[in-house]
Amino acid sequence: MKPSVIFAGTPDFAAAALNAIVAAGFDVPLVLTQPDRPSGRGLKLQPSAVKKTALAHGLTVIQPTTLKTTEAQVMLREQNADVMVVAAYGLLLPQAVLDIPRYGCLNIHASLLPRWRGAAPIQRAIEAGDQKTGVCIMQMDAGLDTGAVISQHIYTIGTDETAAEVHDALMYLGANAIVADLQQINQLQPIAQSETGATYAHKLSKAEAQINWTRPAIEIARKIRAFNPVPGAWTIWQDKPLKIWRAQVTSHTGVPGTVLHSNEHELIIACGSGALSIEEIQKAGSKTMPVAAFQTGNNLQQGTVLTSVETNA
Description:
By secondary structure, this protein is of the alpha/beta class. It folds into two domains: 197 residues, 3-Layer(aba) Sandwich (Rossmann fold); 91 residues, Formyl transferase, C-terminal domain (Methionyl-tRNA Fmet Formyltransferase, Chain A, domain 2, Roll). The chain has eight helices and 17 strands. The protein has a seven-stranded mixed beta sheet. Strands 12, 13, 14, 15, 16 and 17 form a six-stranded antiparallel beta sheet that branches. It starts with a strand and ends in a 16-residue tail after the last helix.
């Protein structure tokens, strides 16, 4: 008999897992997700991807602001569920909640634990130059991504892959992985994590997305990939942010931040070692475009020096 599953998650990454769990025929008596958030130009309240998915399947959805209340915990107990699956939920699960399901709470985490515990494992793996990442299904405990690992699924990061592209690959890898583990929940054998090699994936910030042109080109290229699509790696041109979305490392050399070559098809910028050939770029108030389209309508000339400081700030 298949276990009944409470599901907790919020963004697309979690919605894919919920879809897979429902498609596999598991009973999902309750779905938890973050409260609706204002979004778009009108800042209208928008439901999460998980809420949309749950409602499309006719599932019961609740959106508590905390799971520490007696009311929330009573509701969870009333489901008499076998297991709770958590994926990018965004709320802390107190020990009282972790103890409710018969088989505890399983988390879908987008890294090869213990490497990259925390909020931004995909981005930090790319930024650090990791060649491999993946998905772990983890038995949750009171720590931050410190629980025993049930299964591990490796993914090789492509040399040009962005965080968005790796996210989508791991989203489906995780969805398939959790279904496979739920189907053999009676036979799972969690393995305790080692603290050796543990790293923490801090949240991303706009400030750290600024490009320091004195760094090596290969390092900057990784940052550009890691911060695509959010928050976007940026520099300053004409006192306004200029976002760079895709770039390739070249062997050109010059003063860091200087445009070494500029024509209708090419834009090469010097770094601390090597240089970057820009492929996709976006100036303030405009849309992302290939460098050829950008060069047609802009005058980013050879010899221009890009900075990381807004001079009119």
